[in-house]
Task: structure prediction
Amino acid sequence: MSSLLKPLAPLEAARLFIKKIQKPTRILVAISGGSDSTGLLLALHLAIGDAGRDDISLQAVTIDHALRPEAAEEARGVAALCAQFGIVHHVRRWDEPKPKTGISAAARLARYSLIGAVAGEMRTDLIVVGHTQGDQQETIAMRSARSVREDNLGLAGMADAVLYHGRHWIVRPFLNSTRQDIRDFLADHGQTWYDDPSNDDAKYERVRMRNLPAEVPVEVIDHARKRSELSALAAQLIERHTESHHQSLIKIRAEGLREEPAILRYALSALASVIGGRRFAVSADSMDRVMAFVGKGQPGRVTASRVVFDRRKEGLYLVRENRDVPSLHISAGATGVWDERFEVTNTSAVDVVVGGSGVASVPNMLVNFPSSVPSGVATRAWQTMPVFQDDSGGVTIRPMLAPYDLFLPRLDIGLANAIAHLLGRSAYPQPPV
Result:
């Protein structure tokens, strides 16, 4: 789990990765044609052959982001390399309109969406990408620059494995290999690669971090193990001390609030992101305010990141704030995501609209909650639960876990599964390696 270990030679890293695979496996290699991904493809191809693993197969996918005219030619070059190795190769192109701002983030989401689609079509067991030790150092440096707090969990860096869309595990076998070692490995095997000019464009934050002058050190702190342990303890807190009602209200019982503050904070942040339908963790400043409120031990309420934290004698209730609850039209036979909290599938023959009940009067609403839930808390929760118009009975809903349903790092899988169980969701699949 370390964010920075002694560098591994590329072929050794590939061999160790293949050795961990204990069953027949189909691997999809994401390859752009750059040195890192080309080295990954070659190293895995050689490692599988050296190990005599006929039960492991490779396929490759290249994403043309349609941002550079050279990209199509580079994809053809990658196809020729794959043909040389007898590896099936796929090309997908990002043809959607490009945003005027945030192009890097949009391209990343599009890339993973296209790769995931190929993985689904080919029924591959895992996806591998060529992130290196240098990429890890740059990631940590960027996160460090955004926050100097000692509890900045971003200093754990990139996880070695990430679950994408709850279906596909993405693994980084080269996370402890250097780019220079990869290029030397390619040169030793007479293999060239393509250089993307955007990798030298200083308008990108990652490039600026990569090009820091030698006299400016980049402090790399290994927080991965600490974060993994904290996540596991937060999962235990949730398993022991929480309850959920209608997938819209979570209570942490009083004894859970007496856990070590760092553990409670991690658990609260995760639960708040889910209840609030937020993909990202609650900001550090907001969590400072929440923890100070909880620490007082007095009845009251505080709101942060679309979540109301309501402290009562018997515990702390978390519920979605009853402001700006959206309305969503879902066509017959379609599926949509409402408020980033529920996936709604309309299997009926008519269109439906889903929204919150708001302040509308709902007869006998309180009987749907245990008598132990304060009426004010129950009312607020009911006002933010999904209500359907024109529902003929053909609508199903599934709670979303916004911070985990798109990208779930390996180190948080125990925590994510604890919350999934709390809300009646099935567990996320375990990583294959």
About this structure: The CA atoms of residues 34 and 194 lie 5 Å apart. The domain at 10-210 is CATH 3.40.50.620 (Rossmann fold). The chain has three domains: 10-210, 227-322+415-422, 328-399. The chain has a mean pLDDT of 89.
